[in-house]
Amino acid sequence: MKSRNPFLLRASERIESDAGFLRLYSPLVLDYFIENIEGKELWNSLLFIRSSPGAGKSSLLRLFEPNSLITLLNRKSGDEFKEIFGKLKRLKVVSDDRVNVLGVSLAFTRNYELLENFSGLQPGQRERLFYSLLNSRIITATLRAILSLARIRFPEDLDKIEFTFHDEKLFFKKINLPCNGRVLYDWAAGIEKSIYDLLDSFLPVNPTSIEGHSELFSFEVLHPDCITIDGRKLFDRILFMLDDVHKLSPVQRDGLITQLIEKRNNTTIWLSERLEALNNLKTPRGRDYEEFNLESYWKEREVKFEKLLSNIATKRAAESRDDVEFSLDSQQNELELDTIYDEAKETLANSIVKLTAGTRRFDVWKEHLFNFDVTKQEWCELAKQMEILIQRNLARNELPLEYLLSLEELKLKTADDKVVQAAKLFLSRQFNIPYYFGMGMLAKISTNNVEQFLGFGAPLYERMLSLNLNMTSVTISVKDQDKEIRRIANNKWKDLSKMIPEHVMVSRFLRNFCTFCVEETFRPTAPYAPGVNGFYIDAERTIRQIKDEEWLDNYIFEDLQTVINTCLAFNLLHTKEVTQGVKGQKKNIYYLNRWLCIKFGLPLSYGGWRSKKPDDLLRWTRR
To answer: Could you tell me the pTM of the whole model?
Structure first.
């Protein structure tokens, strides 16, 4: 059933119908696999899928679940499904007549931490029961997935599954193999029930009564060649998808990853987790595992990400029962802004005359400007560019006051896109001229995060639906876009206290940092054009008592570590690696999420960042 505003449907798990999910899903993210690890290399590997909330991790995993793939196979000829089917076929996930991959999904929840924090257990006992719980849940999830792929009933048809693993290592101590699916399921489900009975008990615990496992063996034993239904092999590969791995305790997460890396038994495992700061694996990427950071992937492909969002917007709008296209005006309406530009033109002309009153150095530039026969918008943009360049020139004070600067020099300097963009931003701030508008700008605002795009897209589409009711053009003017986008950003700022832990300290840090960015950005000379919206942590210039690079491990900076971790985990900051300095030194720059740039009137570009000492950043968390 179609909804009025499909942009309000955010997370994939809230879209109940598999067909509805597939209609709304844009498969461009699958190009990562096609580009980098097409074919055999996609399988038999350990892959971490990382991002902040809303970037599309869970949607990607849902695509590989049995019900999604069966629905896709049954509708592969439909126009809405051809592109997804074609990409998955290239990856050998499906063929024309069958699903080749069994997707097994297991979502971690906070209840695993109950086991870690249970006081009645010794550390070694906790570890054994954790592996027991994981083995049992992976096995039961696999059995459910098999029945879904076979399109038969759970639990009634468990008997039809045959499990023929040769148990030479004696993993299964309480059942005889081979066995059918019901025997295997009852054994695994019994372990899980025993563990939770133990945790819920008020009596003294006896963990030895539960079958404890010393290793994570479920991935090894669940091999496609060992599983049949009514004597036939149903799939070629199993893809194990572990979602929300960050919800495990640190000890559990480290234990899980250590087991997976040490075993490396040619199993395909994807671990999806929230991107958290300063928490890196101590194993060499490439040999032991691969990493797919969704936001970094799109960050390096801005044009493709804009295409992705346009694709999503088209698909969402097509699902609206009101049949309204998603349409954003990308050009200013000069008639609508005529009065504003008249005021700006007069103000800028007076400013330039006043700035240059004591010198003839800029006479050629002024003559060109005052005889410049263009639209008011173009005139004001050139005047603001000139004002910035004049401020820079006067600040250097290197030339005699009577030295005339040439028109060629003006044209060369105004061809610098950073100056052009800074001038537009300065004009917007000074005269309230629309700045945040158009699909390209909306893609930048989304900060490589699909859910953030939908968060801005839903109110904009609601406005289009209202315009449609009034029988007017549904295209939103740039003035209304800018106003609505700023309103959404302000509301997101107000909601921070409901969304994040340590919100007082985090909000204080962000406000102080953004105030610093505004001060640096709108200096008259625009020294970091088009503006500042990022920082680099310069540990070499930290307080004397702490050695270089050791601030991360020092309790003095615990508040700063908490703030940065929280900001990264909740997509308030994101990192971008740049190469700069001696011998191509690599630096991680922390940039503001683009909705925060809107809240404080900053540019959406990258490259404008300042180095800050850890102790300077720490002060921003406390004052």
So the answer is: 0.82
